[in-house]
From TrEMBL:
Catalysed transformations (reactions): gibberellin A12 + 2 2-oxoglutarate + 3 O2 + H(+) = gibberellin A9 + 2 succinate + 3 CO2 + 2 H2O
Gene3D superfamilies tied to this protein: B-lactam Antibiotic, Isopenicillin N Synthase, Chain
Keywords carried by this UniProt record: Iron, Metal-binding, Oxidoreductase
Pathway: Plant hormone biosynthesis; gibberellin biosynthesis; Hormone biosynthesis
Record-given protein name: Gibberellin 20 oxidase 1
Superkingdom of this protein's organism: Eukaryota
Cofactors that this protein relies on: L-ascorbate
Length: 383
């Protein structure tokens, strides 16, 4: 085949040669996702067109997700706490998704967190690229992950940054955003610092309920995540003129421990349950919560992370705020002894969160089999 190609080039006319060289250059040129241009484009670049078997279904049934009221739990009511833990456990055994209301997070803070996203994503691309995410890293601005993948690109922009619950890191979010984007983003940084602190506290409360539901007590998982090193991500899905050809986020399970998501009023989140896709309708008063692969390992496979994706539309930008709870980097992910016995032996080897994060950033594109692939990779490395 190589010889045939060489022969064909030699017999081409000069204009044909020039055209082929131009096409080759275009193929090598890195794709830039500029939402201000692409949102109006009728012909999608081929990298954004997903295979037929993975293309989105726009009209899918709604998933009936339990609405868990946290008011009684947060006020210390033992009966309400037991009921909340029971509902959390039931949801995690069924599909791993539930909604929490009366969660104690200030509604104004949530509104500000949504509105401040426009201050970043609506500026010209060169300004956003001041925070450009580097290959192999998980923090910074990413436009459709065009640097990491060459096909099945998601139709979105993200800004991700690290949060730490350690006392010495009380301004880590604000400092990162100011240092990366400039001092004019100080208030922007304060809003997301406060939002992350709220999410961290809410996560620790949910970890108490998860511990109770698994029979290991309130303190077990709360203590494990007390000094968490987590990730905050702002997701911005611009309109797409051919939403039936692409996806905002491809099908995947979160490799992290727990995700707390707040959607705006524009729907788009879909969950794969009982062999079909379902939508989770937006509820501004609620947070969508789902467990991820790291907690699946921590629960020794008792609770499973759930496959989900995001679809886009042709008219309206969709925004979501995702807080990914992750353990402190030196914590070893190993299930409590109460969850390991003759009937349920160890399912996954011990690991630390940075090991799994590195695997998803450098070796593997997160999907529904991330933990399985990571386990195999880890065992291969160790032998």
């Amino acid at each position: 085949m190589a010889i045939d190609c060489m022969t064909n080039i030699q017999t081409m006319s000069q204009p044909q040669k020039q055209q082929q060289q131009q096409d080759h250059k275009e193929d090598e040129t890195p794709l830039v996702f500029d939402a201000s241009l692409l949102r109006h484009q009728l012909d999608l670049p081929k990298q954004f067109i997903w295979p037929d078997e993975e293309k989105p279904c726009m009209n899918v049934p709604e998933l009936v997700v339990p609405l868990i009221d946290l008011r009684g739990f947060l006020s210390g009511d033992p009966v309400a706490t037991m009921e909340a833990a029971r509902m959390v456990g039931e949801a995690c055994q069924k599909h791993g998704f539930f909604l929490v209301v009366n969660h104690g997070i200030d509604a104004n803070l949530i509104s500000h967190a949504h509105s401040y996203m426009d201050d970043f994503f609506e500026v010209p691309l060169p300004q956003k690229q001041r925070a450009q995410r580097k290959t192999g890293e998980h923090c910074g601005y990413a436009s459709s992950f065009t640097g990491r993948f060459s096909s099945k690109l998601p139709w979105k922009e993200t800004l991700s940054f690290q949060y730490s619950a350690e006392e010495k890191s009380s301004t880590i979010v604000k400092d990162y955003l100011c240092n990366t984007l400039g001092q004019e983003f100080e208030q922007f940084g304060r809003v997301y610092q406060d939002y992350c602190e709220g999410m961290s506290n809410l996560s620790l409360g949910i970890m108490e309920l998860l511990g109770m539901s698994l029979g290991v007590g309130k303190a077990c998982f709360r203590e494990f995540f007390e000094e968490n090193n987590s990730i905050m991500r702002l997701n911005y899905y611009p309109p797409c003129q051919k939403p039936d050809l692409t996806l905002g986020t491809g099908p995947h399970c979160d490799p992290t421990s727990l995700t707390i998501l707040h959607q705006d009023q524009v729907g788009g989140l879909q969950v794969f349950v009982e062999n079909e896709w379902h939508s989770i309708s937006p509820n501004f008063n609620a947070f969508v919560v789902n467990i991820g692969d790291t907690f699946m390992a921590l629960s020794n496979g008792r609770y499973k992370s759930c496959l989900h994706r995001a679809v886009v539309n042709s008219k309206t930008t969709r925004k979501s705020l995702a807080f990914f709870l992750c353990p402190k980097s030196d914590k070893v992910v190993s299930p409590p002894s109460e969850l390991v016995d003759d009937l349920t032996p160890r399912m996954y080897p011990d690991f630390t969160w940075p090991m799994l994060l590195e695997f998803t950033q450098k070796h593997y594109r997160a999907d529904m089999k991330t933990l399985e692939a990571f386990t195999n990779w880890l065992q291969h490395k160790r032998t």
